[in-house]
Amino acid sequence: MSQPKPLLQVQGITKRFSGLTAVSQVSFDVPEGKIMGLIGPNGAGKTTCFQMIAGAMKPTQGSVVFDGRSLDGLNPEEICELGIARTFQVVRPLQEMTVLDNAMVGALLRAPSLDEARDLAASTLDQIGLGAKKDILAMHLTLPDRKMLELAKALATQPRLLLLDEVMAGLRPTEADEVIAVLRKLNGEGLTIVLVEHVMRILMSIADHVAVLHHGELITQGTPEAVTRDPRVIESYLGKGAKHGH
Amino acid sequence: MNNATTRMWGGLAIAFFAIMAFLPVVTSDSIIAVLTLIMMFAFFGQAWNLMMGYVGQLSLGHGLYIGLGAYACAVSVGTFGLSPWLGILIGAVISAVVGAFVAWLGFRFAVKGIYFTLLTIAVAELGRLSFENWSFVGGNAGYFLRVAQDTHPLLSLRGGTTFYYFCFLVLSILGFWGTALLIRSRLGYFWRAIREDEDAARAIGVRALRLKILAVMISAAMTSVGGSFYALLSGSLFPDTMMGMRFSIEIIIAPIIGGMGTLFGPIIGAFFVIPINEISNHAAQSMGIFGLNTLIYGVLILMVIVFLPDGIWPPVAKRIERWMKGGASS
Amino acid sequence: MYSLYANVIAGGVLIGIVYALIALGLTIMFGVMRVVNFAHGELVVLGMYIGYLLWLSLDITPVMAVPLSAIIMFCVGYVLQIGLINRFIRRPHHAQFILFIGLALIITGIHMLVFGPDARSIADPSSFETYEVFGLRLDAVRLYGAAVALVMIALLLLFLRYSSTGSAIRAAADNQTGAQAIGLRVNRLYAVTAGIGVACAGVAGTLISPIFDTQPYLAGELTLLAFIIVIIGGMGSLMGALVGGILIGVSESVAALLINPAMKAMFSYGLMILVLLLRPQGLFGVKQR
Fold first, then answer.
1. Domain annotation covers residue B203
2. Is C119 helix (H, G, I), strand (E, B) or coil?
3. Signal sequence: where (chain B) (predicted)?
4. CATH class of residue range A1-73+160-169+192-245
């Protein structure tokens, strides 16, 4: 019996800026319903990969296939409509709009009316615990709440695939655990997740599969246990004593 | 903004416009003429405000749409004998198309910030120079509308001072309510998101390019309608007055001083700007002192942009809100 | 007819050099501070009025008035920068634009109040002299104007290349945050830069005061002229300002001879639009994000 096609197929993507190769021939598959981790030191090219998948940047070479459909030439809003949502590493809330309005902008992608969008936005906010703060202006939120808002905006678009760029950075361990719990619940409901993280503990606890990037190249991929024991990974990444943010 | 606040402002707006509608009964023709100008600049300000306040694109070429609307309507009536309503429609469509094209060019080629503003200026100047050399519309010598025949003002859209006052008053009311509805609609959410952070908005599915072009089209069409009425009011059209940079800059002074991105801002701003103009013209004619209005506009703009970058209205509005909330029971 | 064309082109080159000086002032303010001075034309006109006033009161030709004009305008620029423009460097582009529109209105308003709206011309006998140079018949005022402008441009280039302040300015132009990080007193540098930029505008104005009639509403055209040159030549590029200025000066003169002057303006605007769309960095500029 053949396996179903992976939801996301990243095929040999490369990104060259004049003189600098940020990402080189990176390929990996993400099966539907799984959680995949993308790990690597600063500057390894993780965010650049996300930008190429989400359409914010065009690959110099290679392509991205989502649910059997090539994403070549599509722009970010079209890719979002197809079902891929992403968060930004440095969060970008819509500052002078309320938390609810922020989520509504995302919800309006799917909801035909303002009322339905409002309901969808409100329930998304409740799901991740921001419900009580829905009338606060985004610019008045604390950092952990802004991270949650970033997540809410993306979730409100009802994606099939969620790209999370260091959503845990700057959160205390208890806060991070709450986020992990939410992500697990969403994954249980069928959401496929790819997350970029520095902190191995998080990846170990949540990821089904991990890919390791270094200097723009994919040096290995596998289960979290296998990857952490890989000597190349230890040498290039863990060996630097990298323990970010904790 | 919750429902009680919205109702309060709605009530204030209705009261304001009701007073404005009643004024001609108790004032003289010369005051009505000034009020007409105020309403006209309020309307132009609302149209420009849509693009600047809600989509964040500074256009200094809106005179082009005033001119297109003016000439389209005047030529339709004067040369082709069509109904002025049709002329207004033609002008609005032409302006919307031109606006869409310029916006598309700008956004597609990623012309941002000051470069986009320069683009709007260049296009408007090209338009003005084209009209100056186009004999069909009279070129530099001007285009003139014949005196109106004896038809009903609502058909011919020609009338006296009071008639045009009500035309522009109605336009301002429509502009006010139209803008209010737009802001509260889906479009409004998307536009605000684009204004806050376009890339973040696109990442959650907002079709930024289309929506920005739509804003420009609406802004251009609105401006054009105002231009059409202005042509009917003044009866004589010259490319450098209708489409010149001077007009383009004049129509942005009121919304900037009043408050960009607000509903009342352009109207409040117009109430500041036009009387200053009148005083200055008077000083020029009777005392030989020129340039007062220019100087005062400059000072006002400077003071606003340095101390009150959101305009005069928002701080005043906040005071009014607090005062009203203090009096209302919740 | 050869000599007619040659004279016209030569005249165009000469006036183009003065245009280049105008554009230089604009481009240096952008290159160093990322500030877009939409009131530049008004400052040129201020220089014109200075030239006119000095001629009227002290009976000195505009060329002689240049040093005084340069000093006055430098101070104007310096003070404007420190007092006002500096707060707007990090503000969004449209806020800067509006600031300069306000400034432009104030300057024009003052011109109108003090001098009235009518045109003033410098009817000095020297304005009508011509010289024969290499078989070309050139206006004295244009010749002197171009010569002084060239001297000023050369001084500017030498200053930027060899003086310590000049080098600091070039460093700040290359990298704003970097310059601040290594402790250059950026505010003072910006003030000097603004002083230079405004001085260029003012001196150019003084130089053209015998050529064009001085009136407040000339400012708008001059601002747009400066922007066309700078867009085509490249924002922030000194070479671009020079080449662009001469290009526009020549095309303006030739077009006035051959075709309808309005067409010339349309050609300039059309060219600017094309450059904005297709090659926004202009001929010599550097592509920016």
1. yes
2. coil
3. none
4. alpha beta
